[in-house]
Amino acid sequence: MAAADRADEPFRLTDIWANQRSRSLVIQIITLIVLLLAVSWIVNNTIRNLSDLGVETGYGFLWDPASYDINQHLIDYSSRSTHARAALVGFLNTALVAVTGVAFATVLGFIAGVLRLSPNWLIAKLMTVYVEATRNVPLLLQILLWYGIVVNALPHPRNAAEPVGGFFLSNRGFYLPRPLWEDGAWLIAAGLLAAVAFAIWFAGHARRVQERTGRIYPVLLVSLCVLVGAPVIAFFLAGSPVSLDWPELKGFNFVGGFAVKPEFFALWFALSLYTGAFIAEIVRGGILSVSHGQTEAAHALGLKPGRTMRLVILPQALRVIVPPLISQYLNLTKNSSLAIAVGYMDLTATIGRISLNQTGRALECMSIVLTVYLMISLLISAFMNWYNRRIRLVER
Amino acid sequence: MKRDLLTIAAAGLVAGAASLAHAATLDDVKAKGFVQCGINTGLPGFAYKDDAGEWQGFDVDYCKALAAAVFGDASKVKYTNLTGATRFEALKSGEVDALSRNTTWTYSRDTDLALTFVGVNYYDGQGFIAKKELGVTSATELGGASICIQTGTTTELNLADFFRTNNMEYEPVPIENNEEARQNYLAGRCDAYTTDRSGLAATRAALENPSDHVILKDVISKEPLGPLVRQGDDEWADIARWTLNALILAEEYGIDSANVDQLAAGGDNPEINRMLGTEGEFGAMLRLDKDWVANVIRGVGNYGEIFDRHIGPDTAIGLDRGLNAQYKDGGILYAPPYR
To answer: pTM of the prediction?
Structure first.
């Protein structure tokens, strides 16, 4: 054997090269060293050139007052707040549009994907038109289109439409009454939590009963009743501790209440439509990937089409759907950075645009934006990979 | 998206721009054969495209003056259109040689951003424009309104300060450029638009019924607008500064595009002779031609001619000289002597 022969010969340096494993190891180590040297040279060069130019570097500016106002902020913010707080406000706005966008896009995508496979010709063609139209138009144009529609088609606040008493629709936003939590409101939250716990237990209990005796409990109906009923009962038990802040027209704008601004709406709607079209195609592909024999076998066993789709097709289709679905969620989150085009202050708009321009710290601001987007993307990736691992087929 | 890429690319180019800042910008410009000038994306009166598709305007004429100073030919200039957000990066990175884009001279821009302002070509202030039908006469009545505001400007900061010190709430509607502001303002998304009063006059002039809109009387800040160059090259900054001074001095001494050739032949006024190159070797002090000032005046006229041509009382913009008159005429335009 080669090993026995080599044990008799003295060790030579070229032996490292001869052995494939050690050769590849040496090449990788050399490549890594070269890469690290290149990166450190670039960073060093940048720092040296910046200091030669007299440009200040450093993240200290984050604690200076931002001096600009932001129209939509989920936490307290004023023009005296720091750049760091402005960045946080931007981040929360990005998270808001990403979460709501993902939710709506998924719902839209699944509905459109399943309906595109419908035997009804009109519905299938309508869904085809939707998918093809939104997929092929650049997203920025769609965002600007929806913003233009909302701002130009809706009336001025002084002539605001009132579809239901107390709800106002104008080109400055859709105004709803805002709930004000008073003492005793914690009871409602407690009721909701109890209802959720009960629903989870009941689902497990119903499954066990079904396996033992074959009786099927109406889990969905009961869970919905409890989830809605318990907080309502708690509300009345606590003596109606929630009052509503109604929007009122004062001078130029509506004051009070909760507003869905046209910027947020245009961004959310356009993102959801666009990503929903891609998700529809993924869903359709996933469903088609399940062998038709499964459907036939399910029908042969007497399962209704609704049950077949829910219990046989979709679980198998999900294995094919989930990986591209991850990338679509990531795309949606990253595409939300187009917000500045309509004046929605997300992370890119606050720290990546306004703070950057007012302070002149391009590299620092951009590094913050890039790092945050990278972290969000990695988090979404990790979560969906965990989900994927849980539902995958275990091979023998 | 293009502007984001531009910012990142410009930030990367900052590293390579060190050599540009230390080497003489004048030599680089002469080698290129033209001046690369940063201007607005479109502001009536200050930077606009005429019917032939050429850029004209109050700020554009300064760029032409600079080209005439360096090359003797006012047409040896190329323009880069920059928004409020991208203008400083473009200048710092070396993408443009000078910025003539109605930019306010402030302490932090002069120091923190490592830029050099070479003078003021328009003394302005920030104001508001609102529709007459709103019945607003003063900015202090704008509490609770939606105000269109350009991001990345001093106007944004002044607006926040003004409303905070007056204890008023408002909804800022962020927009990227003047065109977006006009659309949102006309559609009713915002009640008022705030920017420099010269910009307001320009915007109003371009609206369908200018008399339906009123520029409120409040001036809530000082906005000295002027051209700027990168820090680190004093010679280029001197050339830029004295080009502007030459335009102002020419008007003070009565040199205009009509009589510059006749006066360049020599005359009785020693200051005019020095400026137009008949006496002394002043051009060589900046490494320019002897008759560089004469070339500038031939190319674009003097300050008064530029003002009247683009934003004067006879134009659609219709601005008075006001503070921008010569100091002898009641304004504060005062250039150092040419000797």
So the answer is: 0.78
